[in-house]
DNA sequence: AATGAATGAGCTTTCATTCAT
DNA sequence: TATGAATGAAAGCTCATTCAT
């Protein structure tokens, strides 16, 4: 009784995800370079050969992990895709960024380690740079709408604060409780816009 | 007739620095794990063997680089070493942190990449964790003195902002001009302390 | 379709033995330190990488060789494992020691070179020292039973003679024919016990 | 006031001996291959360069050590150089061999480790083989004179006993006290000659 | 689809030896 | 005579990747 075409596809998808998950965990824990394909395969419970059946290379696995994560960040941004950021959408974006970290700390730890490494960061910029810039422009517009006297400067400060807070939450969660920081940062963002 | 003690010492000092500089550049550019000792030696214009004459291991080079950088951060903190942070000392610390980055971007790029890499970060925490905590305590005390209603929360926000701004200055200086951010962040820090 | 568990196991077993044999030959011929893993792999007709697939380290190969040899010595000792050495068992032990050398000269050449090398000898003592002592005690008991006036002294002389004769048989078989020495030594051992 | 030709020669001789002594100690303690020239020079308190001024290579140092030792063994043999071994000369040889070990255990430990390593043993055989054979012939003659029924066999047994006892004294002096073994072995040698 | 034996390039590290001074 | 910085070949070992089965 051979499985149907569809069943095979489903199995493939699950196996692939299994490898991705194993890799993520190990990369986050021990670093990309210190994790061997042997360990990834072993953790996933498959052979090395099979892993190479699903991915072209070790780097390929990393790329796929990063892509997934990048996509998920921006799905929380400009919810109705009208190119304009409302106060609610802005707050939603900030808060959801924190929540995303709470849900998948391993990934974000790996992610932040990865984007710091210039060789990788550059190739990512090429791929995702455009999207990044669109977001910055929307934020800029939003800050202006809020009546900022120095939109450019405020944008810099706010994006520094958001990035910094996400970073400390990721790297030292024992000192920076997620929920508390989420509230403080959200509030601070609004307060930092210089209106007078 | 052999060279004098002094001559040998001078040679050693210069060569060692040469190797450190080469390593810093390559580590920052390509990451620690992706940089081989061969490349370091080649860039320094010496043989691999000589590099090992000056350093016990590749890790040893990294450690020395990190130590130097770490020391330089905290030389700008609590200038008179009385354990108490004044308004002026606080501002001086913030501003000098930015200036330090301006002076040695390469190092700070490496530094920020390194502290994100879990395998390396842990051994650093063991070495420098104590000093880090002392600083946090002094900052906490300072924020209280400034009349904060929520010192703990404000400390988290401020340190997030400072770390985040240093990070963006390091990783995307073309979008975040150093001097401008320095002023904005310094001012924002004072404004963020909730006094009412 | 992959090979069966059994097939893989068989391949592993054979290749492992192949590497062990090559290593033994080279270690015996040129010494442990003067034999590189490259040479071992080359002689076995495999890649260096594969050798490390089967053994954790070069030392690991040596350990396995030594263990095998050590086990084989003492399987000829105290045949019925009752802790007491009879006249027949004693003679059997002596004679079989010679026979063992005849069967695997290479190993014994390596073995005797190894136990002389202080750095390696120490770790062996830790592993096998206990067994060695048990044997000496049994020999001591045996010599007493034979009516020796100076068991301690006789034990020293006899074990010197046995060790020495095995040594010369190993290192200069052209001058010391195995069978002839076996007979002479066996007889001498009994004659050396001072009964009057 | 320049030193005289003779004084210089004396200094050279002392320095050379210093290096030889340091090398011997380290070779015996850690093995030849595990001892670096750096350590030898350091222990002797001279520079590496100077060591190479006195010796052509590391191997050269070892050769000189071995040669010295070899010469010293046979200076105790056939004292009056008449080619004939008397009972007294024989006993003197045995006893002095033990005494030599007592005087310089380090050397003999190294020596016995070295001669076990076949690559070295071979080159030694070429150099010292002749002398060895002369000794064996004299011993053979001596045993005949003593009225042995099986001179060839007795020679094998006796030389095995002597070599073996020297070996155990060197490698496990805590279990085989030198003086005691010297007496027992000397006596046993005479007893082992089969006269009936 | 699946296995793991096998490869080989490249890594970190060591060290006997040389040589400018 | 004396120094130690400098070299370079080779060591032990790792691991991404391939491929016969």
UniProtKB/TrEMBL annotation, chains A, B, C, D:
InterPro entries: DNA-bd_HTH_TetR-type_CS (IPR023772), EF-hand-dom_pair (IPR011992), EF_Hand_1_Ca_BS (IPR018247), EF_hand_dom (IPR002048), Homeodomain-like_sf (IPR009057), HTH-type_Tx_Regulator (IPR050624), HTH_TetR (IPR001647). Residues 36-55 bind DNA. This is Transcriptional regulator, TetR family. Transmembrane segments: none annotated. PANTHER family: ACREF/ENVCD OPERON REPRESSOR-RELATED, ACREF_ENVCD OPERON REPRESSOR-RELATED. It comes from Tangfeifania diversioriginum. Keywords: DNA-binding. Residues 13-73 form the HTH tetR-type domain. One of its GO terms (molecular function) is calcium ion binding. Pfam families: TetR_N.
């Amino acid at each position: 009784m051979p499985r149907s075409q569809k069943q095979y596809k489903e199995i493939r998808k699950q196996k692939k995800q299994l490898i991705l998950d194993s890799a993520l965990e190990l990369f986050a824990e021990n670093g990309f370079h210190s994790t061997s394909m042997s360990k990834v395969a072993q953790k996933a419970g498959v052979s090395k050969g099979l892993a190479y059946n699903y991915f072209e290379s070790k780097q390929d696995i990393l790329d796929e992990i990063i892509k997934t994560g990048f996509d998920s960040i921006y799905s929380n941004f400009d919810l109705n895709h009208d190119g304009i950021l409302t106060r609610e959408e802005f707050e939603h974006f900030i808060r959801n960024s924190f929540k995303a970290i709470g849900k998948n700390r391993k990934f974000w730890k790996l992610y932040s380690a990865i984007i710091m490494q210039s060789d990788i960061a550059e190739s990512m910029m090429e791929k995702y740079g455009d999207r990044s810039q669109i977001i910055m422009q929307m934020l800029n517009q939003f800050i202006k709408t809020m009546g900022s006297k120095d939109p450019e400067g405020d944008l810099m400060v706010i994006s520094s604060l958001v990035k910094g807070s996400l970073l400390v939450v990721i790297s030292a969660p024992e000192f920076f409780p997620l929920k508390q920081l989420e509230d403080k940062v959200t509030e601070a963002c609004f307060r930092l816009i210089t209106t007078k």
